[in-house]
Structure formats: structure tokens, C-alpha cells
Amino acid sequence: MLFVFLPVVLFGTVLVYPMLRGTFLAFSSAHGESFSPNPDRLSLNNFRFLLSDRLFWLAAANTFGFALLVSLFQIPLALILAFMLRSIRSAVMPFVRIALLSTHLVGGVFVGLMFLQIVSPSVRSAASFDVLSDPRFTLLILCTITLWTTVGITALHLQSAMRSIDPALYDSARIDGASGTRQFWHVTLPAVRGTACVLWLAGIIASAQLFELPFVLYSQTAGPRGSALTLVMYLFQTGFASGDLRYAAAIAWVMMLLLLVVSVAFVRVSGLARTQTN
Amino acid sequence: MLWLIGRADIAGLKRVLLDSSWRDAIVNSIFLASIQAVVSTLLAGMMGFAMAKHDFFGRKIVLMGLVFTMLVPAQLLMPGAFEMVMKTGLFDTRLAAIFPGLFSVFGSLLMMQAIARVPDETLHAARLDGCNELRVWWDIVMPQIIPTTTTLAVLSFAAAWNALLWPSLILASESKATAAMWAANVAFNASSGELSDTSFIAAAVLLTMSPVLLLGLLHTNDD
Where are the domains of chain A? Predict the structure, then answer.
């Protein structure tokens, strides 16, 4: 039985301890007071500073704006793509699969480096328009690249959900004269609602953690007028670049709270809790 | 993506292959990602087995904890974990760089679902025949979930290969840099204008992406 408990205990310690320690750090001492005689006394000063920290709210606005925009397009595009995949012959399927999966496997850093070749004027030979220094384009660039990365694997997940739909439903819809679009709307969508909602929520949470892509694209800065500053990047800068671990912990905490609020709201609105639990 | 690959000519490829910092980075990444793939899959398998086939006291709480950890951004763990690394003097060690990645919550839940589908009768039979839990797990359960296991291993490898945030925090020596860190460095030099060798960059992207893509290609999954 030791074998059974060992992984559980290991997981517990490795995951729980840093979380608790991080919480303690967030609630301890004041921002910038790490050298005071008693830096470990409990205090809300980190959070008080955070409320007035313009950079934090800029990062939060950037991040959630990004997450919103991506989530608006990610699932609908993936659904349409998955629906189109139904009619692919099974001989071609493995290639289609690897093509769709490859964009996700490649990962933020390499995708960033790849797209840097397209958008960065110092890399491109014909530099007519520096799109990276225009703050109006930041969101568009980041969203497009992220959608390019994630729609493929999301479509694959949805496709396997769609495969469990009874073909008789499609047949009867067709007999009743339903076009492809109507079949999609009335047969496919209701059936994959559960999976789609889970993927949607996961997508929002993953989007909120955006870091590698803007880090690489904007050469480790916050982008033009700070438009590429994401929450995780701000956390990285404050916690590790400038060594204020306690404030970084506070940022992480508030980020988690904001995400929890969004998640709970999402679960409520989508009625996810009403679908069967697994 | 194919267009970008076309930009990498032989000269660029040669220059990347001859770059010793690239070679170090690739070797580091292959080493670290392989370890993470194998160990995290095994640990997730053990965790999934414990959760799926044993009803122990506190199991529900552990399950809720796992789901909660998935909902919560990983960055919540980072300040505390970083402090731990500094305190134990494991800064700039490869061990510390992969350690968090060995414990995959997503992997555990995936394995838990896969193992739940293994029929209980096979487990009972094995236990009756005198197998201890380790053997039940290794000889009976794991062979039945090989597709899920390989999928998880590939995803873990990819995650380790592409990870930037944590390794950047932990590893300071240049010799220990991972492929992702090396690529980020290339990107930084490229956009600051120091590095303008476009064929080098294109070749660098291609060569550094390829191990993960190859692994994905080799692994065909029927879902």
C-alpha cells in the first residue's frame, strides 16, 4: 500500500508547499521593505501597493483583453474546423492530424522566433512598416499567432468529441432537408457543448498565462507603450528580475483570484456544472 | 510554416550545426525533456492508479485539489518554489530546472481516466495470485493503457522542450541553457539588430523545432 500512497504524498508536498509558502510571502512584509528588521511580519502592504500599481493594472488589462479576444475566436474556429474534418478520408487523416498538432507541439518560444522573421524589421529584408513598434497592433499580432498555435489541437479534441455523435442524427436531419450549416447548428453543437465549454475555459486560463510569445517577439521588453506587458511577464520582472519575491507572490495571488472569478462566472453562465461529471 | 522552412538554406543549416552553444542547448534539452517525459509519465501513472483504483481516506479532497491546481495558474507556485530552490542551494542545477515538471497534474487526471477503464477483475485476479501493488500497476494496468501513456509522454516531452519561464529563472550558466532559452536568446539578438543572418535564424528555428515535431510524427494516435 506504500506504493499507492507514495505518489499522492509526493504530489501533495511538491504542489502544496510552494502554494502555501507563496501565500505567506504574498501576505508578509511590505513592498520594498525586505531589508527591514522583521520582514516576515504579516501585512497587507503588498496588496495595498498593488491596488495603486499602474503597471499591474496595465498588465491585467492587456492579459484579460488578450484572453477575451482569443477565446472569442478560438472555439468557434476550432468547431468549424472540426466539423470540416468529418469528411476527410481516413487515409489522409494521420497527416492532417500531425499538421494540426504540430502548431501546438512547437511551443511559444519557437513560434515567436518563427513569426519574428515575418514581422521584425531588423530580420526582414524589406522593412517598410515596423508593426512591432506600433502599440495598436500588439493585441492583433499576439491574438493571431496564438490562434494559429491553438486552433489545431482544439479542433482535434472537438473532433474526437464529435465522433461519438450518433450518425443516425445526421441522417434524420438530412432527410428532413437540413443543410450542412443547419446540421452543424442543431446536431453537432448541442452534442459537443460539454467538451467545448471545458476547452473554452481551459483556453481562457491558458491565455491568461501568456508569457513566452510576447517575451520573444518584443525582445524581453513590455512592448510599445507597455502594450505587450502580460501579468506573467510583470510577475517575472518584479519577482525575479528585481528580486522582490514577496510582491511577485502577491501578483500571482491576485492573478489567481481574478481567474477564479472568471472561471466561476464562466461555469455559471455556460451551465457546465449541469452537464454530467466524469 | 513550410514557407519559413524554405528560407533556411544549407549554409544557414551548417552554421547552426557548427554553433557549439546550439549543440550544448540541444543536448541539454534532449536530456532534460527525456527525463521529464519518462519520469512524469510514470509518476502520473502511479498517481492515476492510486486515484482510480483505490478508495482511500481523503481521496475526494485530493481529487478536488488536483482539479483546483489545474484551474489555478502555475505561476502561483513559482515564488514559493523559487525560494525553495534558493534556500536548498539548488540554483543553477538541472535537477531544479526539471523538478516541477515531473509532477503533472494534467497527466495524473488523464491517467486516472484511462486507468478507470481497466476492468477491476484483472486487478483482483492479479492480487489473488499474489501480486503486490507495484506489480499490479506495472504488469497489469500499464500495458493496458499504452496509447494514453505514449500520448502523455510525447506531450510531456514537448512541454519540457518548450518551457521557458522556469528554466530561465533557475539556470544561469550558459552551458546549461535549454534549446528554448537558446532560441529566446537568438530572438533577442535578432530583434536588437545584432544578429542579421536570416538563414541562420530560419535554420535555427527549423533545427530546434524538429526533435519535438519528429516525436509527434512518430507517435500516431487513434484517439
Answer: 54-274
Residues facing A171 on adjacent strands: none
Residue of B nearest to A244 (CA): B79
- Cβ A256–B73 below 8 Å, yes or no? yes
Alpha helix positions (H), chain B: 2-6, 10-18, 20-53, 59-71, 78-87, 94-98, 105-116, 120-128, 133-135, 142-144, 146-162, 165-170, 179-191, 198-218
B8: containing domain: 2-218
Q: Looking at CA atoms only, how far is residue A18 from chain B in angstroms? A: 4
Asked if the structure places residue B141 within a domain, the reply is yes
Which parts of chain B have pLDDT scores under 70? 1-8, 193-196, 220-223
Domain for residue B103, yes or no?
A: yes
Shortest CA gap B89–chain A (Å): 16
Long-range contacts of A178-181 (CB under 8 A, 24+ apart): none
Distance CA A111, CA A113 (A): 5
- Give the right CATH number for A54-274 from 1.10.3720.10, 3.40.50.2300, 1.10.390.10, 3.40.50.150: 1.10.3720.10
pLDDT, tens digit, for every residue of A23-42?
A: 888 887 655 555 555 656 67
ipTM, 2 dp = 0.77
